[in-house]
Amino acid sequence: MAQQEPTLITQKSGSNYLFQSRELSNGLKMDIYRKKGGDSYKKLNEQPVERIKNGVEFRSAIGEELYQQLKNDLQTDNEIATYLNLINNPELQRLLSFASPDVAQALGFLFIDKGSEVNRDYTYKIVYYKDSESVDEVEVSHNSIPSFPKAPKELGMSFDAEKISITWEMEPDVKELYTSGVHVYAEDPNGKVTQLNDRLILHTGSENQLFVFSLPFDNTTYNFFMKSQDITGQKSEKSEELTVTLKDQTAPDPVSGLVANSVKGEPSVITWDVSLENDLKGYNVYRAPRTIDSFVKINDELLSPYNNFYKDETVKPGKKYAYSVTAVDSAGNESRKTSRTTVFIEDYEKPNAPLNLKAVYNETSGNVELEWEYEFKQEDFRTFQLSRQVVKRKNKSSFETVNPKVLREQTLLTWGQQMKVLFQGTFIITM
User: Fold this and answer.
1) How many CA atoms lie within 13 A of 340 on its CB side?
2) 3-state SS of the chain: helix, strand, coil percent to 5?
3) Closest of 248, 263, 254 to residue 324, by C-alpha
4) In which band, very low, low, confident or very high, does the pLDDT at 377 lie, cut at 50, 70 and 90?
5) Which of 98, 194, 219, 228 has its CA 20 to 30 A from that of 308?
């Protein structure tokens, strides 16, 4: 009966781990023999090597942590169901045996020779039998030179939202060392080391692998490192360290209760509810010159977290402004802007009066030619307003507006009167 040749690995302790691939089912058992040089074979096992026969013993053999992981993966309720699911799945048996020497022993794929010595030439023989009758046997030679897994290298890290991804490369000769997987660790500023993977990260054979995990983004600096593990359970030395600060990437909640007011043309005052963020550093105030325009930050420095108001002294009378406020935390994350609130700055400032009004009557055309001087001081100047009053002897008419349209020039030609009347004019500025 043909069989794949067993594999032998010597740990640093000197123990030889003998792996064989035949499934010990239907009452199949095996005995293990060893000899050195020309010596006779010596039987190593006192009891037949066989697969554990029930779920309770299997649970005890592999340990509670590993059992609970397997139970959850198989979605079973008890030891019997977990065990039966496993022994009916040969592929899963070999995968778990590759990852855990405890599972490999429990299933009969591994025998540990703790009496061997390093740097010796040994020959091992496995005798398979059933009902006390030999079925097959196989021999394998081994030089017990200790092997040890090499640490991963070229560690890298990337971030996506609140997830962290670490990548690494394995040594080219990893197959010769039978590395089964890796572990990932994080050392905090206090020197506490935490293993981030709850189970072995299996080696897939690809040059670059990926492990995704979560840690709080709270500006803590960690030293990340990794260790390889071989199929005997040996772990490598720690890899090179990757030092990373997990910067806070969570923005504060938006500010609420934003209100803007202005009293009698005074600068606008913006108030809001105090933010309850634990790591609040301050606030930014944004303004738009019109309600449809984009916001621009108007505070030069971040406002104090204890300050929930801002006085905007750069507003101009007669204009409407929109405001929004954001909260900023100690990591520099800025919240979403609040919904805009608006305020109109009333204009209580009268424009300066025109000077040196001159009026000339043109007898030919019958028109009155007017001109005046004016110093433009207000940015919100809109128009001159010319009013006229007709005086006839002792009777005076009420003033009437001469220019119904906007007038920005400093001259005006208006019609005169053919009767012998007097004209009296006054200017009124409107904005």
Assistant:
1) 17
2) 10, 40, 50
3) 254
4) low
5) 219
* Strand duo 320-329 + 341-344: pairing: antiparallel
**Structure-token pair, residue 394:** 């002792």
Whether 424 has a pLDDT exceeding 70, the answer reads: no
What's phi and psi for 114, nearest 5 deg? -85, -5
What is the C-alpha radius of gyration for the chain, rounded to an integer number of angstroms?
46
Residue 293 has pLDDT above 90, yes or no: no
Q: What is the pLDDT of residues 139-186, one digit of tens each?
A: 999 999 999 899 999 999 999 877 999 999 987 664 445 889 999 999
Write out the H or E segment, with its range, that includes residue 56: helix 55-62
Distance from C-alpha of 409 to C-alpha of 39, rounded to nearest angstrom = 124
> Does the CA dihedral 325-327-328-334 come out positive or negative?
negative
| Token pair recorded at residue 24 | 């010990």
Find residue 43's DSSP bridge partners: 33
* Region for residue 125 given its phi and psi (left: phi exceeds 0; alpha: psi -120 to 50; beta: otherwise): beta
The answer to whether 393 and 421 have CB atoms below 8 angstroms apart is no
| CA distance linking residue 267 with residue 261, whole number of Å | 9
User: Which domains, and CATH codes, for the chain?
Assistant: 7-143 (2.60.40), 153-246 (2.60.40.10), 259-344 (2.60.40.10), 355-430 (2.60.40)
Q: What is the mean pLDDT of the chain?
A: 87
Helix axes 79-87, 90-99, angle to 10 degrees: 100
Contact 168, 182 (CB under 8 A): yes
Q: What is the DSSP code string of 63-119?
A: -HHHHHHHHHHHT-SSHHHHHHHHHT-HHHHHHHHHH-HHHHHHTTSEEEETT--TT
Give the tens place of pLDDT for each residue, 326-364.
999 988 999 999 999 999 988 877 778 888 888 888 878
pLDDT at 406 over 50: yes
- Kindly report, residue by residue over 225-271, the tens digit of the pLDDT: 999 999 999 999 999 999 999 988 889 999 999 999 988 768 899 99
Task: Kindly tell me the sign of the dihedral angle through the C-alpha atoms of 351, 352, 353, 358.
Answer: negative
Contact between residue 108 and residue 11 where contact means Cβ atoms under 8 Å apart: no
Angstrom distance (rounded) from CA 172 to CA 154: 13
Query: How far apart, in whole angstroms, are the C-alpha atoms of residue 216 and residue 330?
Result: 15
